[in-house]
Amino acid sequence: MGYANHGYAEMAEEMVKLASAQPGFLGVESVRDGLGITVSYWESLEAIQNWKQNERHLIA
């Protein structure tokens, strides 16, 4: 079973929406070919720390 079958794509989409509302968000790149990965870009270490503390992101 691929990650898509476990809600990965849906969760990744939700995380992009949440991240884009965070101060300091610059963008994302995603690749899905069986497995998936999404990388987010931020303007500062402080912005990254704030994103890492987002409650929904912690659950994801």
TrEMBL record:
Domain ABM: 8-57
Pfam families membership: ABM
A GO MF label: monooxygenase activity
Keywords recorded for this protein, A-Z: Monooxygenase, Oxidoreductase
Protein name in UniProt: Antibiotic biosynthesis monooxygenase protein yqjZ
Gene: txxe360-yqjZ
